[in-house]
Amino acid sequence: MLEWVAISRAPQSHPIQSNCKGLFLQLHWDQIHRASDLWRAYWDMRDANVQNSGRYFRARGNYEAAQRGPGGVWAAKIISNVGEYLQGFLYQIYLGDSYGLEDQVSNRRAEEWGRSGQDPDHFRPAGLPKKY
């Protein structure tokens, strides 16, 4: 009887290991939320379909991600940089043209504005509905 009890018991995990697993899952969940801030801003921009609103939505997405803490600032910067590189790459492949330097600079300025915690409404275009 004693052998059966010893065999049937599941091994106990070390408390530090279980805490690390929980922390690991929490970090991934936080990253998903940070990325979703930028993704939501992108889809709102597409839904609004208002000319010259891209900088506002870039600032807003970065602002919302930055509100989640230092990890949000980091995630917003990485995602924004990757998006900028992909956009430039696709412009060159499909249009044979480079992405305009003025656009890159103004988009980067809007993203940095939002990541620094400043109000994204600074870039809000006229005619953008209040729901955004």
TrEMBL record:
InterPro entries per the UniProt record, alphabetical: Serum_amyloid_A, Synovial_Prolif_Regulator
Superkingdom classification of source: Eukaryota
Alphabetical list of SMART domains matching this protein: SAA
Residue segments, region Disordered: 110-132
Family assignment from sequence similarity: Belongs to the SAA family.
One record GO biological process: acute-phase response
Protein name: Serum amyloid A protein
CC per GO annotation: high-density lipoprotein particle
Compositional bias ranges of the Basic and acidic residues kind: 110-124
Keywords: Acute phase, HDL
Functional summary from the UniProt entry: Major acute phase reactant. Apolipoprotein of the HDL complex.
PANTHER family (alphabetical): SERUM AMYLOID A, SERUM AMYLOID A PROTEIN
